[in-house]
Amino acid sequence: MAKLELYQQLADLKAKYPERFEEVVKEHPDWFQAIVDEQKELDILSRVRSDSPEGYCAFYEGIHGIKPPWQVALWISEIYKAHEQGLGYTLNGYRGSWKSVSISVDFLAWRIGNEPRKTNLTISANDDSADKITKAISQIIEFHPFWKKAFPSIVPDSGRWSSNGYWVVDNSMPKEEWAKLQAGVIDPTLLGGGYTSTRINGKHPTGVLGIDDIHDLNNSTSDTERKYVVRFVTTVLMKTVIRKNDKLDTWVLNIGVPWASDDTHRVLSSSGAFLASNLPVMRKANEGDEGAIYIDGVNDQTGVTYDDIKGWWILAWPEKFGVNTIKKERGLGKFDFWQMMMMDLSSAKSGSLKYYIYPKANVDPNWPTAGGVDVPYDFKERHDNQTKLSSFAMAFLSKRPASGAVLVGGVVDHPTMGQAFNHMLAAQSNFTNWIFTFCENIGGGRVFISAARLMFPHLKIMGSDLGKIIKLPGEGSGKARNKKTRIQTELAPWLENGTVLISDEDNPYLNLVRDALDNFSELNDARADDRLDVLDAFYHAVKGMPEVLVGQRFDEELPAIFRKSKTPHPLAGRNHK
């Protein structure tokens, strides 16, 4: 039924049955619901222009059809508290908590509706990420039906509506008057870009400066690049904002996840100029605490127990991130979970990396085997005038018939180039079903591969980049990351879930691998360390056979004494009342 027709019928009913109107309407559920919906929308529209957390919450409900989750309402109240004090706001929130949608998109769009004359800037790690945010905002303004009801006069300026700059027009006044008001404004209403983008040069946001995930793997694992990002935010970007009466007038918002103890969030948090907030996916609790839930830490698919999440917790958003989801997130790797979900870098980097031993007696020398090589290079330690040569390391990784792989041995040495080639030739000869030797093809590694192919044309050697172990179709190799980061973020999850095992054989290479994993937190990329070299060779061997990384059960071929218990803890998933 058309809305006008419905309203006419309701008006006729009210005139005919003034005393029984509500009773009659309730006999027609569709009519009653239409009235309820209309009253609800009118209530939302009456609040949406209020410059307050309540006004934002009304906008959120109008845009999404639901009230904002508790954490979103909290963030907005904290943002207002910070702004009233003349401070910026910086947030580390777990992945999937809706921080980008709620703050970088919804809050900024709502500010444009309320203050269309002001200019707004979004900064991310790169142009593509920033464009996703500005595109989402532009589509709300251009197409969303609630926007047209809440801010009917705020419309796109035709001809000036693209990723190079989005301009709005306020049609509530004559165009000449609007042009007069905007005569001194040279920046677009909304613009986004990466921190290295030329788009953002010279821009001075008078409305919102939104910094969304300015750190990523490409710029955070390098000390030099990470410090450049922080320096850009603190000495360049913060100089573009507007201040009035010695207080921030621009809304300055930084959101993301932690990357280092000296990343942008940490520096802004300790500056005294920002209100800082952190939201992990769950917080440690005691048995008996209200809302506490016990997590047994057992991955039901693999049988692996994650001791670090075993215990009582209070979940931040149990309807969306319940026990099963948290276990799955933890299954992606310890480092990733504690960084991206728990906002806790110290726990992410602490202690050892979990792995599982495979009996040497069960290894079959006829299994297909690949090698991974980490070539030596000159290594000048920080604060040290002495230059050292890192080790040559070679890993031997064998495929198991059913699934997964086993690190069965390797070499660690300080050989000449010729002796290094001999190590590779010996492995290729000793293993019946040798696949290839995979060698880092960056810098000296590329020279090493070229020399090997020139001197020994029959040597099976291939280059291995420093991108992800598993890449999506068409995905590039990405920027090179240091050894420790590659092991933590890419190799460790496959060790922890038992897809890749380590032989219990006693030899120098395997002993160093196990020592490196047992004492991983003490390894330092700033110093030469044979343990990092053997792990990097291991990494390249695994990268050379991605077909084994299928997440199968690791213990199906192991003797019973090596298997993990599959019996769930009696308190698993119990919500304590």
Average residue pLDDT:
87
Helicity, in percent? 25-40%
Q: How far do the termini sit from each other? A: 48 Å
How much is the radius of gyration in Å?
30 Å
β-strand percent reads: 15-25%
What is the β-strand count? 22
Task: Strand order, main sheet: write it out.
Answer: 14-22-19-18-15-20-21
Q: Main β-sheet: number of strands, strand sense, barrel status?
A: 7 strands, mixed
The SS-based structural class is: alpha/beta
Number of helices in the DSSP assignment: 20
The coarse overall form would be elongated
Unreliable sequence segments: 379-387, 552-577
Draw up the topology in text.
Elements: H1 3-16, H2 21-26, H3 29-47, H4 53-64, H5 70-84, E1 88-93, H6 99-114, E2 120-124, H7 127-143, H8 145-150, E3 154-162, E4 165-170, H9 175-181, E5 190-194, E6 208-212, H10 217-220, H11 223-236, E7 243-244, E8 247-248, E9 251-256, H12 264-269, E10 274-279, E11 282-284, E12 293-295, E13 311-315, H13 323-331, H14 334-340, H15 345-349, E14 357-358, E15 369-374, E16 378-380, E17 387-389, E18 392-399, E19 405-413, H16 417-430, E20 434-440, H17 444-455, E21 461-464, H18 483-496, E22 500-503, H19 508-518, H20 530-543
Parallel strand pairs: 1-9, 1-10, 2-5, 2-6, 6-9, 14-22, 15-20, 19-22, 20-21
Antiparallel strand pairs: 3-4, 7-8, 11-13, 12-13, 15-18, 16-17, 18-19
Helix pairs in contact: 3-4, 6-7, 18-20, 19-20
Describe the structure.
With 577 residues, the chain is of the alpha/beta class. The chain contains 20 helices and 22 strands. Strands 14-22-19-18-15-20-21 form a seven-stranded mixed sheet. Strands 5-2-6-9-1-10 form a six-stranded parallel sheet. A three-stranded antiparallel sheet has the order 11-13-12, with no helix packed on it. A hairpin with a 6-residue loop joins strand 16 and strand 17 (387-389). The longest helix has 19 residues, at 29-47. The protein is elongated and about 95 Å long. The model is unreliable at 379-387 and 552-577 (pLDDT under 50).
